[in-house]
Amino acid sequence: MKALKIKKNKECLNPILAMAVYIGNRSWNYSTEFSDLIGVTPLSSDYIPRFKHFLMDHSEKNEKIKGAIKAQIAHLLIQASFQQQLKKIETNLCELMIQLPQEPGINYLRVFSVYIYATQRRDETRRGITQWHSDNEMNTT
User: Which of 46, 55, 108, 123 falls 20 to 30 Å from 29 in CA-CA distance?
Assistant: First the structure.
């Protein structure tokens, strides 16, 4: 509605792309039609939106995704968080974390390390974080 108020002569709204990012233990096996996902309701079907969502199914996938290094790392960390499989992504994660630029401001290596420590089993994270920091120091000297 804000779009209609900003441009006085505008007769319609901008399109909306509904997206679902799914990271689970199994592949998405539900409809991409939004109305199919609504349970039994006393409301008339006139009030149930009808549209398809764009599905990004990242379940059980250990593939390299395209995008900026930080986005790739975030994708892997979210995947590892949901599946508790840090070892499965460790190689890709190390390769990406070593590529993080050393810039003033936010220390993303530390940010990602804290996220890993908060979402994974302690015994795995101690070993992994120590190794990543060690590798990163060797590559920057």
Answer: 46
